[in-house]
Amino acid sequence: MGIDVEIEPEVGPIIHNPVRTMQAVEALRITDAEESTPFVLEAIRLLRRELEGKQAIIGFSGAPFTLACYMIEGQTRGDVSTAKRMLTQEPALVRELVARIAGATARYLQSQIAAGAAVVQLFDTWASELSSREYEEFELPATRSIFQALAATGIPGILFAKGSSRILHAMAKTGADVLSVDWNTDLAAARRELGPKIALQGNVDPSI
């Protein structure tokens, strides 16, 4: 999308041109995955050939708000206070940013499916920073647009969100086939709350 990323040892990805203005958002572009991440797609093809009939390949991407946090903050660790502040001070900018990320993510996952992914997952690490209202306003429309774009493929979609217990009902509106909940969300309680129409997984304490 035009973001410069450098991997620094012991630190992780660093974005040297963080997105904090509408001009920067409008400069983002939706790239072709075969051009920008050919190594990801080639890895999926290789794995598909080796594991055909044995194991399914799971495609993966970060969810729109989580990726927006990284783009705004300039790194993948630490707090997301700048992104949180922009939610209230510049909501139109954040809304446009997550919408553009959603468009790029849909194409990225479509390419992974074409390469051989049998299921895809969106991983929303920073959903825990959103109130229920903020999730409904900013993340739900973007995430739903991704699953709508993937619906024609017939490939199941999984949505994981950290802090899922507060936003389960909103997550169920995204169009995901499976909700993957964090370890603080009881599966039996989630089943009672959501009914039988959506698959559930998760509730695994990462320390165990």
What distinguishing features does this structure have?
208 residues; alpha/beta; 5-stranded parallel β-sheet; two-stranded antiparallel ribbon; 7 strands; 15% strand; globular
Give an overview of the whole structure:
The chain is an alpha/beta fold and 208 residues long. Helices cover 48% and strands 15% of the residues. The protein has nine helices and seven strands, in the order E-E-H-H-H-E-H-H-H-E-H-E-H-E-H-E. It has helices spanning 22-27, 33-36, 38-51, 64-73, 81-89, 91-115, 132-150, 168-172, 187-194; strands at residues 5-8, 12-15, 58-62, 119-124, 157-161, 178-181, 199-202. The strands form two sheets. Strands 3-4-5-6-7 form a five-stranded parallel β-sheet. Strands 1-2 form a two-stranded antiparallel sheet. Helix 4 (64-73) crosses helix 5 (81-89). The longest helix has 25 residues, at 91-115. The chain is globular, with a radius of gyration of 17 Å. It starts with a strand and ends in a 6-residue tail after the last strand. The model has no long low-confidence stretch (mean pLDDT 93).
Mean pLDDT: 93
Strand content: 15-25%
Rounded to an integer, what's the Rg over CA atoms? 17 Å
- Main beta sheet: 5 strands, parallel
Oligomer: single chain
Tell me how many strands there are: 7
Poorly predicted regions are none
